[in-house]
Amino acid sequence: METFMLDRQDLPSFLAACEKHRRVHVPVEEAPDHFIFKPLAEATDQPVALHYLRTALPPKKYFFPAEEVLYRFDADGYHPQQPDLPPMILFGLHPCDLHGLDVLDHFFSRDYPDRTYHSRRQQAWLIGLGCMPDEHCFCQSQGTEHVDGLYDLFLWDLGPQFYVMVRTEAGHDMLHMARALFKPVSQANQQAYLALLKKRRQAFTLHMPVADLPQVLEVKQDCAVWDKIGETCFTCGACSMVCPTCTCYDMLDRMDLSGQCGERCRKWSSCLFRDFDRGAGDHHFRRDRGDRVKNRYYHKEHGYVNGFGKPSCTGCGRCITACPAGIDVISVFTKVRRACGGEEEVVS
Ligand code: SF4
Ligand code: SF4
Fold first, then answer.
1. Scanning 30, 139, 145, 226, which has the fewest C-beta atoms within 10 Å of its C-beta?
2. How many CB atoms lie within 10 A of CB 241?
3. Strands 34-39, 249-255: parallel, antiparallel or unpaired by DSSP?
C-alpha cells in the first residue's frame, strides 16, 4: 500500500478534480448536529464535514435505497429497471460504515446475488476518513475500529495535512486526478499518524465485551428482559432505518389504474414492525413486541456471529441516538448479562 500527504487547504481542489470525472458525494452538516451525505455539487454553500461522527442515514441509502422499483410488468412481460446511480465517489466514510458496507455486500451476494445492489455498488469508489469517537461509539468493541481493504483511498486528519493511504487501482486513479497535490510521506508524518492512532484508541469511553455474547444469548433465550424492553419500545423501526447493516425489506406490487401494467417495488422495512412477519390466516411468528426486539438484537450479536463469524453491528451508535424511547444497545446487552447472573462486564 502506498501513502502520501495532502495539504488540508488542497482537499477542495482534490475533490473538485474528482468531480470532473465522477459525481462526488460528501458529508455535510445539513442542520445543527444533523449530518447527511449529499452531492458535492449541491453543497455549494456548505463545507465538507470533516469532524462529523455519524450521518443520519448510513451509506446504505445509495446502494439499497429506501424504496426502488425492481421491474415493471405489462402484457409483454417483465421489464427489469436499471439502477439510476451514475459512477460516483463517496467521500468521508468512517471505518464503521465501511464495515457496514462489507456486511451489506455479503448479504446481497448470498444465494442469489442482488442485481440492483451490485450494479450500484460497482459504480462507487470509496474514500475513507478517520474519526475520533464520542460517548456513543463502540466500534472498538465490535472490531470495526479499523479497516483493511474495504476502501480505495483513506485519509487520516493530522491537522495541517492528511495522511493518505492508497489501497486499490481506483484509489490510484483518484490520486492521479490531481497528482500534483500529493506529496511524499516523511518519517515525522508517519510518527504523527501513529500518534493519532494511539490517541484515538485511548479516546474510546464506551466498551462492550462481545466475545462471549453469542454464548450468553444462547443460554438466555427465554430471558424476561426482552418483555421489559418490549414494554418501552414503540416498534417505530427508527433503529433499523438508521442501521448500516439492517437489510429487512418489503415487496409491494403497484398496479396501474388501467389494470394493464404495474410495478414491483422494494421498500425498507423492519423486523420490529408488527406486520413484518404476518403470514396467512393472520399468523404472526413474533406477535409480541418483546419477541420482535429480541429478534433484532439476536440477529446482530448471535445469529450473524454463528452464521458468518462476526457480529452484524458495527458499533456506530446510530440506533442509540435515534431511539425515541431511549433504548440503547449497550444497556440492552448489559441487562441480559445481569439476568444471566453474569458479572458486570460492560464499562461505560
Ligand atoms: S428506535 Fe427504539 S422505540 Fe423505535 S423500534 Fe427501535 S428500539 Fe423500539
Ligand atoms: S445496531 Fe445500532 S450501533 Fe449497531 S450497527 Fe446498527 S445502528 Fe449501529
1. 30
2. 21
3. unpaired
Strands 67-74 and 77-80: antiparallel
The string of pLDDT tens digits covering residues 289-324 is: 999 999 999 999 998 988 888 999 999 999 999 999
Question: Using CA atoms, how far apart are residues 267 and 103, in angstroms rounded to an integer?
Answer: 19
pTM of the model: 0.93
pLDDT more than 90, % of the chain: 78
Task: Report the chain's mean pLDDT, rounded to a whole number.
Answer: 93
Ligand 1 centroid – CA 293 distance (Å) = 8
Residue 6 is placed in which grid cell?
Answer: 495532502
Per-residue pLDDT at 344 exceeds 60: no
Sign of dihedral through CA atoms 17, 19, 25, 29?
positive
Q: How far is the CA of 53 from the centre of ligand 2 (A)?
A: 13
The ligand placed nearest to the CA atom of residue 276 is: 1
Instruction: Determine the Cα–Cα distance for residues 202 and 114; give it in Å rounded to an integer.
Output: 40
What's the pLDDT tens digit per position in 205-252? 998 888 888 888 888 777 888 999 999 999 999 999 999 999 999 999
Q: Which single residue is written with the C-alpha cell 414503540? A: 234
**Ligand nearest to the backbone CA of 299:** 2
Task: Measure the CA dihedral 94/99/102/107, to 10°.
Answer: -120
The reply to whether ligand 1 has any atom less than 6 angstroms from the CB of 235 is: yes
pLDDT at 347: 42
Is residue 286 within 8 Å of 277, Cβ to Cβ? yes
Q: What is the three-class DSSP state of 16?
A: helix
Cell of 167: 489501497
- The pairing of strands 249-255 and 77-80 is unpaired
